């Protein structure tokens, strides 16, 4: 290392010490002169107040003022300019009210000018910004200001004197800052808002054929959320946690030339050339209910034509105008739950469940504030079942003249910090995981997140204080935060792919599992091109070089690797193995509790728990249900002993057989499970293997339990070493998965006392001609019996066994069945 480099590092360390001693300094003041790239590391500690919202019982005693007729849909805007047609169009939406938040530079005669503006009709075509106003309106009833509230400076100052968090929030909101808009959100909420349209006064709603503004929320708020349907939503499949929605919305530059290399303001610059991993691919479309358990929509952002919301670098380097597809084929896009995409405060719908997430930070420039808000919120959305949709452009942006270089300076945080911010947020978590803990809610998680963001240099301390007053105000006005439906943190999910050459199938599977689990990995014999895709998209994987018959032995080998990978983890306590064609009912697997119970081995065959072996030596079978059944009888009849000399007997040693052929013909053939015939010789070799001696019974035999369908297995990591040893022995002798798994589990029971096991009821359907997935849904989920797992449910026909024709010809089928099996995983919490 050069002496100059050592001096620079020493200097940076001194500056970090300076930071630790003086928390009042901003990250920029410390690092601006160093020339170092922003690392996103923790550079200071928060030492101020932390509020326990479960104990904060203060009351505002604030009387609501009925400024409006009964309004549930509000447009909110702040401005320092004269009124524009953009404001007029929002005010003309049927059953909408508008809140205009003034700042110190807002014209004092704003409402007079707006009233005059309302007296004119528009004569331009639907796509214009409405500047060509030529005639006075003859419709006097259409010129009313009754649904418009001007939240002027004098009124705002009155609110500063209010008691409790409300007054403190108003006092902390800076003047001459974009964040004055926060007061409008709060005003709308207090006055009964169920939906907020967050817009700028240079974003014009387009006009319809009758010159009426297009409805930005074409639903009635008195309809139950589960009855509001957003039709034909495109579902992209994405491996990366960074999503660039532009390409899928088909941008056209100068109205004619398609340009797939555009990006929205706030998109990380270090990813703008990574189209292959950030664009995603649309594989199917579906109707989305606004308030469905698994897909509550929190935010809908409309793209804008003309001069859309891109950053200064984009404006300085690419031509304008730019439009997006608004044809009959244009569809909204659902952002994957695990991914981040920047949405703005220029033409965005916020539903009631996401009102808490409208808060704009105050210690960053306005060009950064709404983007930071979107990223912070999406981090918390992931555990709140709130989703983001980007919608085709009902908006034309006629941007007020800006200095692009001035914008460039104001957007510095977006350029230098966005990439590290998203990396941090995608891995962020808080220590409290207990679903029933009083602090396991959005207010406490939001507080912890903003404190951590301060400590890592993304915002300043005043934003933490400001957020605390915001939460306090919402609570004191009786706002109901949505309940958390968090991802499981203490279980890793491993998907076994026998056919590992279809990227979209793998990515679809990973994306759906990421809706429920923090840790998701895939395993299989991946071709080089797929392995490269997994690496590029940061998807953890296990590469198994045994290409031949990958589903026969690989699953338990790969599960052993996964258990070893996580056995020393501070968070992951179990690994759940799923074949790619198995869909588990998480409510049943987790018993409806959070965090996921990790004290049992869980499988899918009745014999695994209804008939097991005692811990005594010599061991004998025991019926754990004290009931007689066909399954138990078959399990008893298919348990056997193999001795090191190759002799085989039934479990009670009533009958002995000298070789595997005789044993199968005289004893096991009634099971019609032909794999016994094939693998009995392998089990004989396993029994005589010196490395297996520790698993022999006192009479020198090895007991083999009944076979089990083995497309699913849940194993606590505390059994990782024993599982690995047992799986190596079985793999060494090439023993088939469904025969190996029961014995591997039994070996764990031999070496660990008190091992608990449990099964899920499996619905297996093998149609002999191709059927649609919905037939499987009706067959398996239509009965009164609770199903713990579905099999086989392959994602698409390209990943299909020749003799397993129940596949999903569309990815929509897999998505539908997956959601049907996991409607609400916390019903017992």
UniProtKB/TrEMBL annotation:
The protein, known as: Uncharacterized protein
Protein's organism: Chaetoceros tenuissimus
């Amino acid at each position: 290392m050069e002496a100059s480099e050592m001096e620079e590092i020493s200097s940076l360390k001194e500056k970090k010490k300076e930071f630790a001693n003086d928390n009042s300094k901003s990250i920029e003041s410390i690092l601006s002169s160093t020339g170092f790239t922003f690392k996103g590391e923790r550079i200071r500690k928060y030492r101020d107040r932390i509020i326990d919202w479960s104990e904060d019982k203060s009351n505002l005693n604030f009387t609501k003022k009925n400024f409006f007729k009964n309004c549930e849909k509000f447009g909110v805007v702040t401005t320092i300019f004269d009124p524009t047609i953009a404001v007029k169009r929002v005010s003309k939406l049927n059953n909408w009210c508008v809140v205009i938040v003034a700042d110190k530079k807002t014209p004092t005669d704003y409402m007079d000018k707006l009233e005059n503006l309302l007296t004119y009709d528009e004569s331009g075509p639907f796509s214009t910004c409405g500047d060509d106003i030529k005639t006075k309106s003859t419709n006097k009833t259409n010129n009313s200001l009754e649904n418009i509230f001007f939240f002027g400076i004098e009124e705002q100052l009155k609110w500063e004197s209010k008691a409790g968090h409300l007054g403190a929030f108003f006092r902390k909101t800076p003047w001459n800052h974009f964040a004055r808009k926060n007061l409008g959100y709060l005003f709308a909420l207090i006055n009964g808002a169920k939906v907020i349209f967050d817009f700028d006064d240079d974003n014009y709603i387009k006009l319809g054929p009758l010159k009426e503004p297009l409805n930005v929320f074409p639903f009635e708020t008195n309809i139950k959320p589960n009855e509001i349907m957003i039709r034909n939503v495109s579902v992209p499949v994405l491996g990366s946690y960074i999503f660039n929605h532009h390409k899928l919305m088909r941008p056209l530059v100068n109205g004619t030339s398609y340009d797939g290399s555009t990006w929205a303001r706030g998109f990380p610059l270090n990813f703008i050339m990574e189209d292959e991993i950030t664009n995603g691919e649309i594989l199917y479309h579906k109707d989305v209910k606004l308030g469905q358990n698994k897909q509550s929509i929190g935010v809908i952002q409309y793209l804008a034509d003309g001069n859309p919301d891109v950053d200064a670098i984009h404006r300085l380097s690419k031509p304008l105008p730019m439009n997006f597809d608004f044809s009959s084929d244009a569809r909204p896009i659902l952002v994957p739950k695990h991914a981040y995409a920047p949405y703005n405060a220029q033409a965005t719908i916020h539903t009631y469940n996401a009102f808490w997430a409208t808060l704009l930070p105050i210690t960053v420039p306005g060009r950064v504030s709404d983007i930071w808000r979107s990223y912070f919120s999406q981090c918390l959305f992931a555990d709140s079942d709130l989703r983001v949709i980007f919608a085709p452009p009902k908006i034309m942006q006629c941007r007020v003249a800006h200095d692009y270089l001035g914008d460039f300076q104001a957007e510095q945080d977006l350029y230098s910090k966005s990439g590290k911010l998203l990396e941090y947020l995608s891995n962020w978590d808080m220590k409290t995981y207990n679903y029933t803990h009083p602090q396991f809610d959005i207010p406490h998680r939001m507080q912890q997140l903003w404190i951590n963001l301060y400590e890592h240099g993304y915002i300043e301390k005043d934003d933490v204080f400001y957020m605390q007053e915001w939460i306090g105000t919402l609570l004191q006005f009786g706002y109901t935060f949505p309940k958390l439906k968090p991802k499981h943190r203490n279980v890793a999910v491993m998907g076994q792919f026998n056919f590992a050459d279809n990227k979209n199938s793998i990515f679809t599977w990973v994306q759906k599992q990421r809706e429920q689990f923090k840790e998701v990995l895939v395993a299989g014999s991946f071709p080089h091109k797929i392995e490269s895709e997994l690496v590029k998209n940061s998807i953890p994987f296990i590469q198994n070089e045994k290409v031949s018959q990958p589903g026969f032995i690989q699953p338990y080998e790969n599960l052993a690797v996964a258990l070893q990978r996580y056995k020393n983890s501070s968070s992951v306590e179990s690994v759940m193995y799923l074949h790619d064609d198995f869909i588990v009912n998480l409510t049943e697997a987790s018993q409806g509790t959070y965090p996921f119970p990790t004290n049992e081995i869980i499988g899918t065959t009745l014999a695994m728990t209804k008939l097991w072996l005692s811990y005594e030596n010599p061991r004998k079978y025991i019926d754990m249900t004290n009931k007689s059944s066909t399954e138990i009888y078959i399990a008893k009849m298919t348990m056997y002993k193999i001795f090191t000399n190759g002799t085989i007997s039934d479990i009670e040693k009533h009958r002995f057989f000298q070789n595997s052929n005789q044993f199968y013909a005289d004893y096991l053939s009634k099971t019609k499970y032909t794999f016994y015939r094939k693998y009995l010789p392998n089990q004989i070799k396993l029994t005589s293997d010196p490395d297996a001696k520790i698993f022999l019974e006192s009479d020198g035999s090895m007991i083999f339990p009944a076979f089990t369908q083995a497309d699913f297995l849940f194993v606590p990591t505390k059994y990782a070493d024993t599982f690995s040893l047992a799986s190596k022995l079985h793999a060494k002798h090439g023993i088939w998965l469904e025969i190996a798994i029961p014995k591997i589990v039994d070996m764990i029971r031999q070496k660990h006392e008190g091992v608990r096991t449990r099964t899920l009821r499996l619905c297996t359907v093998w149609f002999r001609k191709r059927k649609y997935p919905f037939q499987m849904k009706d067959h398996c989920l239509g009965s009164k019996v609770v199903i713990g797992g579905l099999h086989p449910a392959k994602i698409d026909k390209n990943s299909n066994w020749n003799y397993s024709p129940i596949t999903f010809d569309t990815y929509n089928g897999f998505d539908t069945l997956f959601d049907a099996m996991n409607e609400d995983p916390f019903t017992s919490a």
